[in-house]
Amino acid sequence: MHVFFEDDGAFKAGTVLADNATSLQVEAASGKRLKIKSANVLLRFSEPSPSALLADARTLAAGLDPNFLWEVSGEREFGFADLAGEYFGRTPKPAEAAALAFCLHGSPMHFYKKGKGRYRAAP
């Protein structure tokens, strides 16, 4: 089992080594072991590998248009995975959902961060 999570304002992915009720022991794609809170986990997935997910997500994020996402997101608060489902027209693959998270997080003039994985379009 792998996870995509937020740590110190950056998105990371890793392999779960131990899963407790409130925290996880994770080996990040860089090889570093981290203890993260379960609340910081944005996605759980089995494939692809964490490093492949990050590489694919960054490639996909480069092709996403923040202006278009801003126009279609509306005024309500939303989760990045919900918008990914609307954008791709189906349940998004982990790399697609992560790509949308990278795009939203990298466009602070278009989207305000409202919580872990939650955003709102800027007025």
Concise summary:
The chain has 123 residues and is an alpha+beta fold. It is 34% helix and 35% strand. It has helices at 50-62, 66-73, 80-88, 94-105, and strands at residues 2-7, 10-19, 23-28, 33-37, 41-45, 78-79, 111-115, 118-121.
Write structural notes for this entry.
- This protein is an alpha+beta fold.
- The protein has one domain.
- 34% of the residues lie in helices and 35% in strands.
- A five-stranded antiparallel sheet has the order 4-3-2-1-5, with helices on one face. The chain has a three-stranded antiparallel sheet with strand order 6-8-7.
- β3 (23-28) and β4 (33-37) form a beta hairpin.
- It is globular.
- The chain starts with a strand and ends with a strand.
Number of strands: 8
Which strands sit side by side, in order, in the main sheet? Answer: 4-3-2-1-5
Count of discrete alpha- or pi-helical segments spanning 4 or more residues: 4
String of helices and strands: EEEEEHHEHHEE
Residue-averaged pLDDT: 94
Q: Roughly how many Å apart are the termini?
A: 38 Å
Largest sheet: 5 strands, antiparallel
Proportion in helices: 25-40%
Stretches with pLDDT under 50, minimum 5 residues: none
Radius of gyration: 14 Å
Give the count of structural domains: 1
The geometry reads as globular
Going by helix content, strand content and strand pairing, the class is alpha+beta
Strand composition percent: 25-35%
